[in-house]
Amino acid sequence: MQKKRICLLLLATLLIVGLIGCSGNNTSSPSQDSNTKNDSNSSTQELKVICVGTEADSYTKIYQGIADEFSSNNEYGVKVKFEFYENEQYKTKLTTLMAANNVEDIFFTWELGFLKPFVEAGKVYSLQEAMDSDSEWKARFLEGVLEPLTFDGKLYAVPTQTTFCVMFYNKQIFEDNGLSIPTTYEEFLNVCETLKNNGITPMSLGGSDAWIPAQFVQQITNGIAGIELYNGICDGTRKWNDPAHIEAAKEVQAMIEKGYFQDGMIGMSPEEARSLFMNGKAAMYFMGCWEVSTFISDDCPIKDYVGAFILPAKNAEHNYINVGSVDTSFAISENCKNKEAAVAFLKYYTSSSAQEKLLYEAGRLPSTKIEVDESKVAPLVSEVISISEKFKGLTPWWDRVFGAGEGVEFNNTCTAVFAGEDPQERFDALQAFAEENANR
Question: In whole angstroms, what is the distance from residue 289 CA to residue 364 CA?
Fold first, then answer.
């Protein structure tokens, strides 16, 4: 049985160099080793976890399954219950709960600028003491993955996965049309042109959620300007209306004009766009590799034909500078009445047994150092792991870095560009917004 130590974000340190500038192996956790089931007469307290997910997402059952395992045998007498919400709905709900000081015990969070305002408002419980007092827990994590969730020297959430964007593709459609994985940007455009000429929609994209057009623009930009632009915007030496952003936006508009995306893209939901790909109505689908869980599920009609590749850079020297970061991080509300039990659950969720379950059953890339049994890994997961080993740098989504300020405005700018508005005017407006925001 072949095993190897997983090294999915091999340049975690490189990733964190940018992150800091932008943000101001055990199978059970130590707390679980001596756990015994509760006496049948003892009362059971519920720990609620709010998280992003929908009924169509196969991973939600796996998440709750891990919670059920913890609930069946812990010394705190608690039962963990997940509540799932669609992405944009979740953002609204969490913001509302935070404003009302009524956040559930444990909540899903993105890193950096998304989490920081809640920390500064005193709404998030610091995990630093718990981490410092448990060297085994601290040692589990891949190098650098805790930094994006650390503010003023204190840790406020733990990542349970890592992720990055890939181009999923239908191997059968590619084969039927005599196509292979493109290795250059020109080859990628030729693939799109060939598919369109053959009556096949090249790419499916859900434009109703602004972050989706934004991640595509960001990836094209990475391939034009590399990680230097990302770091420059973070430290203030480069501007949002940088020529690379304008060039990337024009590239995307050219793809739209040539019919490389499905009709009605702007008004289409992420679920609808994914469905087009899954039902063979589009050859490619650009999304975070968290979608692997959907594509390896028995419910996926094209389960045996889904592959993945990295979108080639327009400027070849910037290949493998990719959009990606830590993922599915969980934080504990300051209002949580049983913080000790909540911490114990986070330790269990990041134990080797739970991380292996996420990898083997959901195709989720771990945030911890685990030994991988390759015989248990789905072929698509193996492809994604192989891709990760080639990275030269990762840039987190801008709305995670700058949160509700420039991050959301970047998303809106990219959606406007997808809708045909002038790239120069839109990015000039974004830069003006950033300058005004900086002076407040």
Answer: 8
What's the pTM? 0.90
pLDDT score at 107: 98
Contact between 193 and 259 under an 8 Å Cβ cutoff? The reply is: no
Q: Which parts of the chain sit beneath pLDDT 50?
A: 1-21, 24-42
| Domains of the chain, each with CATH number or no CATH | 3-163+325-386 (3.40.190.10), 164-323+396-438 (3.40.190.10)
Task: Tell me which residue of 248, 411, 235, 424 sits closest to 432, measured CA to CA.
Answer: 424
Q: Name every residue whose Cβ is closer than 8 Å to that of residue 360 and which is 6 or more positions away in sequence.
A: 373, 376, 377
Q: Say what the pLDDT of residue 22 is.
A: 61
Distance CA 173, CA 209 (A): 27
> If we measure between CA atoms, which residue out of 257, 243, 266 comes closest to residue 423?
243
CA distance 147 to 208: 31
pLDDT of residue 23: 52
Placement of tokens 């109505």 in the chain:
281
- As a three-state string, the secondary structure of the chain is CCEEECCCCCCHHHHHHHHHHHCCCCCCCHHHHCCCCCCCCCCCEEEEEEEECCCCCCHHHHHHHHHHHHHCCCCCCEEEEEEEECHHHHHHHHHHHHHCCCCCCEEEECCCCCCHHHHHCCCECCCHHHHHCCHHHHHHECCCCCHHHEECCEECCEEEEEEEEEEEEEHHHHHHCCCCCCCCHHHHHHHHHHHHHCCCEEEECCCCCCHHHHHHHHHHHHHHHCHHHHHHHHHCCCCCCCHHHHHHHHHHHHHHHCCCECCCHHHCCHHHHHHHHHCCCEEEEEEEHHHHHHHCCCCCCCHHHEEEECCCCCCHHHCCEEEEEEEEEEEEECCCCCHHHHHHHHHHHCCHHHHHHHHHHHCCEECECCEEEHHHCCHHHHHHHHHHCCCCEEECCHHHHCCCCHHHHHHHHHHHHHCCCCHHHHHHHHHHHHHHHHCC
How many CA atoms does the CB half-sphere of 157 hold within 13 Å? 27
pLDDT at 43: 60
Question: What pLDDT score does 32 carry?
Answer: 38
In the chain, the N- to C-terminal Cα span, in Å, equals: 59
pLDDT (0 to 100) of residue 420 = 98
